[in-house]
């Protein structure tokens, strides 16, 4: 889904530790005690029953009375960890109910990586390579159905509004698979330096576009575009053919992973511009 040699080297978040952020095991579809909360956002560790087991995840929503549109946030190859909790919290502050799942729940609870991680080191990469096979297009579609149902079951979710989904790195294709699995509920899809959005395989994510009813935001890293310059054009053609509204943009000078804090290629000004584009998409498509 994302080539190993395109990833930045060091990824570091001093808050990342299994002891501090390990998700708790609770009854399926139940909610664990609050992991972190402030005066604006409620954050809870949850489990979601899927067709393949029980997934650990984090749920965020604004405090106070009300109902809000929902968002399913797919993290990058390193899965659920503090930086994606921060994103979930930030989205909730903007007025959304947000679910961030652990990609690898079938084999390991989050966080799957402790402390520093360096993609330039074979031993570090090997830790993820044993987990990646557990994430498949068919399995993701089943998971997406369960996650959408979970979000719709939350009392904070406004079910009169469409659901948004966004993905980072290998989470990009997962956002596409979500739109294909729940076309009647997904109204917006966003990907950031997504890998593998277009391939020659029969289950290539871009082939699902005609089945969906969403508006798309595709933010491409500059070095990803250099490696695969035809992808943006293939995506634009697919969106045009399906008559799906879409913004496909290459962030010149950016590197794969530029929107995720803790990465050595994190580019805050560009990441903030991408975040503004995301909020504008959700405002248009979700209300």
Automatic annotation (TrEMBL):
Domain Dienelactone hydrolase stretches: 56-285
Domain of life: Bacteria
Keyword annotations: Hydrolase
GO molecular function: hydrolase activity
Signal sequence, start to end: none
InterPro entries xref list: AB_hydrolase_fold, Dienelactn_hydro, Dienelactone_hydrolase-like
Ligase keyword on record: no
Nucleotide-binding among keywords: no
Protein name: Dienelactone hydrolase-like enzyme
Protein source organism: Caulobacter vibrioides OR37
